Amino acid sequence: MKLITLHLPEQYIRALDRLVDEKFYPNRAEAIRTAVRDLLSVEAWGFRS
């Protein structure tokens, strides 16, 4: 994996932290990886669920 730096609005970070606190994801990075993967699967790779 490669490291990237990402600037997000504070409200996004609070929402990510809430998902982590509620154990939906183990950490912010995993939540963001999942969101990017889901976006790419639809927008870039054309998969629909």
The gist of it:
This protein is mainly alpha-helical and 49 residues long. Helices cover 57% and strands 0% of the residues.
Mean pLDDT: 94
Topology pattern, helix = H, strand = E: HH
Distance between the termini: 26 Å
Shape call? globular
The Cα radius of gyration reads 12 Å
Explain the overall architecture:
- With 49 residues, the chain is mainly α.
- It has one domain (1-49).
- Helix content is 57%, strand content 0%.
- The protein is built from two helices and no strands.
- The protein has helices at residues 10-21, 28-43.
Indicate the topology.
Elements: H1 10-21, H2 28-43
Tag the structure with descriptive keywords.
49 residues; mainly alpha; 2 helices
